[in-house]
Backbone:
């Protein structure tokens, strides 16, 4: 099993790294995510049930770990702000910032994952449904809510 | 890969499909359709080449034998152990403890604590027209934006801020001299001065170099120039990177 995972690390590790970099925007954190995803798979190979492709499993694992880090980063940023000098910071508008990253901090878990797959990976609704194990209709509903949220945030001062 | 503000055209191929094609994991029934699309779509061909180049440029270390990465194992301790240790330090020595973040392990579901202490972070704020906001990784910036850097570090030392723009040109943003700037420990401390962004567009990386001693800035520049994607800091230094994207204003 270790050999199979090592082979996957060589061929698919760069994919995990690229996606983690995009989501986290930080090379050191992204490299840690790569190590975490694969060492976790080595420790508990049963995580990948064999249903669906290994690449889909790695996409999901990477997304989940990065979302955890982004949420923790938000907590950390709040800690720093509380302890540091007051900052003249206005909320960034969605259309001028990396839309997804800003939203990810605030979105419910499944909606955040849909935002990643749709806006960052460019997946179709059918592909996202396969990734999440839900119906295309459900993905469509989540995207509608997501767009509504973006619109609301854009008009928030 | 960049963060797209809008979804790609409906008939275009996702990164997931292009990745699957590259590693030979594409569902065989989709093969002909995907190849036909690639022949006719310049956007998807360009994206495919971009993903291929990115994969080839990625250098990954050997997979560790241990179940968790060494760095992670050092940093991660159970909440119970952390609480007991903090209590002992507080009661016996009276030392103030650093804040810790509590997170749920995606593997075990256990709650674990992650130490913040010692991590040097580069931060920045953007002034755009009349608005000032806090920037972050993945930020889209525009020519004419003014960027002011800040840092958080629990240890004092020296700092320099470098940047590699979309054309691959490496610049020293801070300080203006060849001597690193001395800093004290603190959170979200602003550095003097600001940088007015030029009109070079594309992916840009800000490097915050933190050292426990003075290192000639030129030496830092050379270290980053040699391995811009994964720079190896000189001894006693650490580098925090922030990737942003500079786009032309409409």
Residues:
């Amino acid at each position: 099993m270790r050999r199979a995972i090592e082979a996957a690390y060589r061929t698919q590790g760069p994919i995990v790294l690229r996606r983690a970099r995009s989501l986290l925007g930080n090379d050191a954190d992204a490299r840690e995510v790569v190590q975490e995803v694969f060492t976790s798979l080595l420790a508990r190979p049963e995580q990948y049930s064999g249903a669906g492709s290994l690449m889909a499993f790695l996409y999901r694992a990477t997304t989940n770990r990065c979302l955890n880090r982004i949420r923790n980063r938000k907590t950390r940023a709040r800690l720093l702000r509380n302890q540091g000098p007051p900052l003249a910071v206005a909320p960034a508008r969605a259309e001028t910032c990396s839309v997804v990253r800003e939203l990810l901090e605030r979105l419910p878990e499944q909606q955040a994952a849909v935002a990643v797959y749709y806006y960052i990976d460019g997946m179709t609704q059918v592909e996202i449904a396969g990734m999440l194990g839900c119906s295309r209709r459900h993905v469509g509903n989540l995207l509608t809510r997501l767009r509504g949220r973006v619109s609301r945030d854009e008009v928030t001062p | 890969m960049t963060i797209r503000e809008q979804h790609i055209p409906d008939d275009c191929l996702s990164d997931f499909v292009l990745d699957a094609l590259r590693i030979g994991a594409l569902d065989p029934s989709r093969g002909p359709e995907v190849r036909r699309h690639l022949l006719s779509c310049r956007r998807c061909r360009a994206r495919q080449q971009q993903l291929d180049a990115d994969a080839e440029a990625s250098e990954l270390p050997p997979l560790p034998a241990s179940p968790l990465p060494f760095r992670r194992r050092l940093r991660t301790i159970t909440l119970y152990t952390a609480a007991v240790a903090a209590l002992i330090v507080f009661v016996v020595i009276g030392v103030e403890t650093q804040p810790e973040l509590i997170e749920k392990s995606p593997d075990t579901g256990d709650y674990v604590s992650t130490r913040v202490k010692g991590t040097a972070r580069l931060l920045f704020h953007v002034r755009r027209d009349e608005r000032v906001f806090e920037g972050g990784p993945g930020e889209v910036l525009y020519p004419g934006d003014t960027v002011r850097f800040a840092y958080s570090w629990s240890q004092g030392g020296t700092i320099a801020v470098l940047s590699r723009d979309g054309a691959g040109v490496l610049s020293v943003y801070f300080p203006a001299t060849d001597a690193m700037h001395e800093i004290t420990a603190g959170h979200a401390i602003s550095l003097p001065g600001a940088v007015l962004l030029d009109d070079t567009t594309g992916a840009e990386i800000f490097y915050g170099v933190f050292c426990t001693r003075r290192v000639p800035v030129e030496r830092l520049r050379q270290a980053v120039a040699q391995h811009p994607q994964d720079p190896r800091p000189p001894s006693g230094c650490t580098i925090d990177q922030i990737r942003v994207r500079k786009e032309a204003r409409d």
Q: What stands out?
A: Chain A has seven helices and no strands. Chain A touches chain B through 71 residues (CB under 8 Å). The radius of gyration of chain A is 17 Å. The helical segments of chain A are 2-24, 27-43, 54-83, 99-104, 109-120, 125-132, 136-155.
